[in-house]
Amino acid sequence: MAKPRGQGSIVASAATPEYIEQQKIKAAVRGLSDFSALTESQQLELLQERFGDRFTSKKSFQWTLKSGETRTFYEINVPYEDLEEKTTVTFEINGREQSLLTAVTLSDLDSMEIQQHYPAIGYYNEDGKIDYADGSRRRKRVMLSNGKIPFLKSWVTDEPISLSDARALAKDLQTAKEHNLWEIGQMAKTYQQKQPGITQDAIAKLLGYSRTKINRALKAVMVDGRIIALFTDVSELSHADYDVLIKAQEKAIDRDELDDEIEILKIDIAEHYKNPDFDSPYNLIIKTFKAYLLAKKPKKAVVKFNDIEKFDDKNTFAKVKKEKQKVTYTFSRLSAEFTNKLEQFIKQELKDEIERNDKSK
Question: N or C: which end of the chain has fewer CB within 10 A?
């Protein structure tokens, strides 16, 4: 478990420097033999003199990671306009599906326009971007603020962190609402893909959940992402809701109707939003899929083969079936000489048709 080790004195940037440049700065600081003997104000003054106005805060602290290694985290304010390009969130570490973060699901963070109570926690990855282990919801809320929230308060380390340490750090520092069942299922599924044969008990231990929850999460993640995206707040979904969605999805796939059902629901939801009192599509979606489950499959009109010609022998026939743009011919017990002639005739007619189409272009 990551543990803080008190206040340090090395300062942090108020912007987001490139990783390699940050390393150069660290090396320069380490080269100052009398740096640690200076007061915090003197340290800040010296850093500003050497590296410009990048360093505007003198707050830092150390964490002991799960592996036993320590990292120094610096307090920085990442400007709103830099968040999209200079920061990122890795799902395998953070566990928060970013596509599900909307103005609705983040409404509990509207107070950030006045004050950010908890900083986001991250580290510089190999691409020189800040990768947030914790605080992806706060990051997204700032990004959706259109500049009303000028920056994201963060604690960031500029030293690499292993994947296992980063995951443990994200788990220890999680300050936001609990991950929903579908997100937990995505994390569990990632383990299954990377470690074939891994048991649900092992996944539960790694993620810090019960085996029952992992089992339910792996079922929940079976729901198509396009269906999940219809909800404004996936955390509203219960285990029973996921069962309904999975069964309806299986029925729709069997009928080759899933794409159509999703598109119809999108249109229906958009129509309902024209009503100012409509605030969540949750009930509409669940009711629609429940009704779909109960609906009987309409009987399709049976398209029969028709005789092209009748023969005295009931086992000899030439039939045709026309279904929309599909035409099927079937023959039985006709001579080889006739079928060869028929095949040559069809080939020639198709060739002539292609040539006519080419000339008409």
Answer: C
- How many whole angstroms from its chain centre is CA 47? 40
First and final C-alpha spacing in the chain: 71
Return the bridge partners of 64, or none. Answer: 3, 70
Residue 215: how many CA atoms within 13 Å on its side-chain side? 4
Helix axis angle, 282-294 relative to 239-254, nearest 10°? 50
Cβ–Cβ < 8 Å for 186, 150: no
Q: What angle do CA 112, 208, 108 make, to 5 degrees?
A: 20
Quick one: residue 198, left, alpha or beta (phi over 0 = left, psi -120 to 50 = alpha)?
beta
Question: How far, in Å, CA of 256 to CA of 30, rounded?
Answer: 64
Integer Rg of the chain from CA: 31
* Alpha carbon 162 to its chain's center: 22
**Helix pair angle (211-220, 239-254), 10° resolution:** 30
Contacts of 25 (CB under 8 A, 6+ apart): 17, 51
Selection from 203, 136, 123, 142 nearest residue 174 by Cα: 136
| Contact (Cβ atoms closer than 8 angstroms) between residue 3 and residue 64 | yes
- pLDDT (tens, 9 = 90+) of the chain, 361 residues, equals 444 444 332 233 333 444 444 544 454 444 444 444 555 555 555 545 544 444 445 577 778 888 888 888 888 888 999 999 999 998 877 777 787 888 877 877 887 887 786 788 888 888 888 898 888 889 999 999 999 999 998 888 877 777 777 777 766 665 545 778 888 888 888 888 888 888 999 988 888 789 999 999 999 999 998 898 888 888 889 889 999 999 999 998 888 888 888 888 888 888 888 888 887 888 999 999 999 888 866 555 556 778 888 887 767 888 888 877 788 888 888 888 888 888 888 888 888 888 888 777 6
Contact 332, 316 (CB under 8 A): yes
What is the Cα–Cα distance from 245 to 223, expressed in whole angstroms? 7
Sheet arrangement for strand 317-323: 306-309, 317-323, 326-332
